[in-house]
Design brief:
With 443 residues, the chain is α/β, with parallel strands linked by helices. It contains 14 helices and 23 strands. Strand 4 and strand 5 (82-85) form a beta hairpin. The relative contact order is 0.14. It binds shikimate-3-phosphate.
Length: 443
């Protein structure tokens, strides 16, 4: 544990500055793939077996919602195979209570698509205070074009949301933001709609749903320029599959940046998913001239995977914008930490989506890194960071966001003097072992 001495409050963690990192780490299963394996398994015929499912709070929220509607899912425990007994495409029952999506935007948005077409059944979805502030119009409005009835505050924008299951019709839908959550919600709704559905994205977002739906037997085609156009024809039932979940590159990102920044570090991160719609972080680290080697490239159950070795070395500042954003959207907080330790100015633009994540990640990173002495300017759609200043230890706060908690842990290691981190337990949303792994790798 990164904690030293008794903690004044359970979630206030002392972060010790200094030291280096060395060894091998296996990051937990990919969060996006874990949600999808549970969801698609639940609406398949027969059994789905999931190896490497992420045993963290977000997928547990998805599993709890599915169980409440009649899917049988074995206990989700680290290192154990999970079995899902599917109920078929239209077999989910009306739950006798509100469905709680916790902190998980993926759970809520994909559930809206899944439930909109369950004729004659009524569902109410809610979540924690962060999720109840996140915009759901991006899903409820295109679903309304297909005939969905979703009601809630601000005309169906904010949870709690009530879904009155309706017969849906296929449609051609252009999504205004490149969002895999929106795309996946529409594809889930399309599975039982009358007629085919086309989803056209402004840029390709992560394609785990497309890969997995096809593997489960859906009639789905990906086309258009750079895979931006997805066509789904309904009528085929899904069949239970064996899913092997690779490690999450978004969790690996903390070790990759820490390994590149911390003097003397040498880390190997094993079994990392390298789906090209997710590897923007590697493109930016390459631009920074970080020393990263990809070893043992292989394909596991339809997803590319490899081991990544990172060693410390001098880093160049970076610039990136809208084009790369869908491939690294969750890695912006840790990259803003990396920018603080490069000589020169780094610039992140085209990142306004960060403002509607678990927190407003541009504002929170600017606030927290400024408290450590960083020179950082916030823009409407990004950040400018002048690196090279010595950061100092400070009273930090994750502000309830898992990726902020872990990003600040890396910054604190490189600061002069120790820091404290309030609400550090947020990391459990995607990486429950993060704090113990940090302590294990530290030397
Ligand atoms: C996710 C998609 C991304 C990402 C989120 C997980 C998914 O969100 O930020 O952590 O599993 O589909 P958007 O689709 O809103 O970009």
């Amino acid at each position: 544990m990164a904690t030293k001495g008794p903690n004044p409050a359970p979630s206030l963690r002392e972060l010790i500055a200094g030291g280096t990192l060395s060894g091998t780490v296996t990051v937990p299963g990919d969060k996006s793939i874990s949600h999808r394996a549970l969801l698609f398994g639940a609406i398949s015929e027969g059994t789905t077996t999931i190896d490497g499912l992420l045993p963290a709070e977000d997928p547990l929220s998805t599993a709890a919602c599915l169980r409440a509607m009649g899917a049988s899912i074995s206990p989700i425990r680290a290192g154990e195979i999970v079995q899902v007994e599917g109920v078929g495409l239209d077999g989910l029952q009306e739950p006798d209570d509100v469905l709680d999506c916790g902190n998980s935007g993926t759970t809520m948005r994909l559930m809206l698509g899944l439930l909109a077409g369950r004729k004659g059944r009524h569902f109410v979805l809610t979540g924690d205070s962060s999720l109840r502030r996140r915009p759901m119009h991006r899903v409820s409005q295109p679903l309304a074009v297909m005939g969905a009835t979703i009601q809630g505050r601000d005309a169906g924008n904010f949870a709690p949301l009530a879904v009155q299951g309706q017969p849906l019709r296929g449609a051609v839908i252009g999504t205004p933001v490149a969002s895999a959550q929106v795309k996946s919600a529409l594809l889930l709704a399309a599975l039982t709609a009358e007629g085919s559905t086309s989803v056209i994205e402004p840029a390709q977002s992560r394609d785990h749903s497309e890969r997995m739906l096809r593997a489960f037997g859906a009639d789905l085609e990906v086309g258009g320029e750079l895979g931006r156009h997805i066509l789904l024809r309904p009528g085929r039932s899904l069949r239970g599959q064996t899913v092997v979940v690779p490690g999450d590159i978004s969790s690996a990102a903390f070790w990759l940046v820490a390994g590149a920044l911390v003097p003397g570090a040498d880390l190997t991160v094993e079994n990392v998913g390298l789906n090209p719609t997710r590897t923007g972080i590697l493109e930016v680290l390459e631009q920074m001239e970080a020393k990263i080697e990809v070893l043992n490239r292989r394909d596991v159950a339809g997803e590319p995977v490899g081991d990544l070795r990172v060693t410390h070395g001098p880093l160049k500042p970076f610039r990136f914008g809208e084009e790369i954003m869908p491939r690294l959207v969750d890695e912006v907080p840790i990259l803003s930490v990396a920018a603080c330790f490069c000589d020169g100015e780094s610039r992140i633009s085209g990142a306004s989506e960060l403002r509607v994540k678990e927190t407003d990640r541009l504002a929170v990173m600017a606030r927290q890194l400024t408290a450590m002495g960083a020179e950082i300017e916030e823009h409407a759609d990004g950040l400018s960071i002048r690196g090279g200043r010595q950061l100092h230890g400070a009273a930090l706060d994750s502000e309830t966001d898992h990726r902020i908690a872990m990003s600040l842990a890396v910054a604190a290691m490189l600061a002069k003097g120790n820091s404290s981190l309030a609400r550090s337990e947020a990391a459990a949303v995607s990486y429950p072992e993060f704090w113990s792994e940090l302590e294990r790798l530290r030397c």
